[in-house]
Amino acid sequence: MFSALKRLLIGQPLKSAELGEQKLNKTKALAILSSDALSSVAYGPEQILIVLITISTAALWYSIPIGVGVLILLLALILSYRQIIFAYPHGGGAYVVSKENLGVNAGLLAGGSLLVDYILTVAVSISAGTDAITSAFPSLHPYNVNIAILLVVAITILNLRGITESASILAYPVYLFILALIILICVGLYKGVTGTVTPEMHAPIGTPVAGITLFLLLKAFASGSSALTGVEAISNAIPNFKDPGPKNASKTLAAMGLLLAILFSGIVYLAYAYGIAPKAEETVVSQIASQTFGRNYMYYFIQGTTALILVLAANTGYSAFPLLAVNLARDKYIARMFTIRGDRLGYSNGIIFLAIMSIILIIAFKGRTEHLIPLYAVGVFIPFTLAQTGMLVKWVREKPKGWIVKLTINLIGALISFTVMLIFFITKLGQVWPVFIFLPLIVYTFHKIKKHYEAVSEQLRITTCEPSIPIKGNVMIVPVAGITHVVENSMNYAKSLAPDQIIAVYVAFDREAEKQFQEKWECWQPDVRLVTLHSHYRSIIQPLTKFIDTVEHKANESNFRVTVLIPQFIPKRNWQHILHNQSSLLIRAFLLYRRDLIVTTVPYHLKK
């Protein structure tokens, strides 16, 4: 039943030879890997206004110069990451750049920041998408968290079906969103030119504002820079591109930068022109669309596509997180399970882990986007800074042709990224202070995992001088619940392995049943030792595991191996298995991960 449900949701398994068919062309890659950056247009400008409105509505004109500053930062990042793509064509982004040029700890700091950032990408995108839905339908506000969780589950299933299939589906909403915002910006600008938008709707640029401070402007700039999260995703996901990967990735990065610049500057200008002030119950994009078109079909088209791309922006995390996890796992800094491809050739363990952590964050923050964005943004500007600094070291060390120009580009990118990062820490310390706790913990955990893998590898390596300890014999324990063909099958299997000793264990709940079973066993299997355990509290697991502990302790002293054979019978219908083998399944679950203990089941298949 589980297998049938899995096939329905995920699809049929793909052959390893079909991996090449799962690569992305530029059109699909732009939709998949740029959706995070493009979607931030829906909340990046709003974050600027949220800070400025604390002074007065007259201060909202400062959003224009702040927006110009964000565009300058965007240009620096696009040029910098284009160089990273060609310098590291196998992907890995900030993690690989930092590790190779700044050292292991810098690489782990960048990698850990990006892992957290991609988790926050999903949480922020889904939360923002839910906000867009509830802005259009206010009656859904009380169900924000539930809607967000359902959306995470839906997009997780879509990604488990494979990157090509998910890209084919998700490309349409992304391009519809781009079309919707371009129409909105063009119509809004047209209304401004024709005089529909009057100067009385906003304060003129340059209007003196009492109470405005450099600290507040820097805080607004840092908030607006959250629109640049996701710019690094393409450099992490180069292996997902069709050949030539670096060339296609760089073109996709340039297209993303151009689109982001147009959409971001358009929304910032229209918000200023209309005199839009942020509201808790309605997004800035919703207010702009409402004033431009009214609450007609175009308004709902814009809100619908905005909600879709905010939800689907999470797909950037689903595309980049598993690939970054693969790089860390290959270096043995996280579990090796992240390197395993699933049925549809995607890194399923990374996808599922990302979904679980995102749901936990959504529940913990109750789906409030503004509480997540500061952590989200600061998490990405740390690897931004480390990546640009790493490239500086690379150019100085290698001095390739034209390295002065490359050095200059990365130097500008490093300085701006470092400045924005400092602004975040200074102006939003109350919101981003958890970074100082969880990032060192993540790096420490990486080192502990690496140390564990190295210690295990050292012990498993056959070139070691340490002699192996000989096994002197084997003791087999067979839990039995009666005298049946299932138990007989297990006994025959145990005898075929020629162990030194077979011990049948029966757990009785009353003395009379215990005595009767001993007499039957003596007649049926006189050559097999029977141990009966009396359970005062009608528990099978507790007395059985206590007995196995005792036998295992004595066996280890004599270098004997202990094996537990659990009888099971397999009905014709798979779903009936759990109805008849509850005790067997429980015993196996309790014993499966015990050290120095072999646990296996001996199946007996029913014929009818």
UniProtKB/TrEMBL annotation:
Record carries keyword Transport: no
Pfam families xref list: AA_permease_2
Membrane topology annotation: Multi-pass membrane protein
Top-level taxon: Bacteria
Key words, A-Z: Membrane, Transmembrane, Transmembrane helix
Localization per Swiss-Prot or TrEMBL: Membrane
Protein name: APC family permease
Organism per entry: Paenibacillus violae
Highest classification ranks of the organism: Bacteria, Bacillati, Bacillota, Bacilli, Bacillales
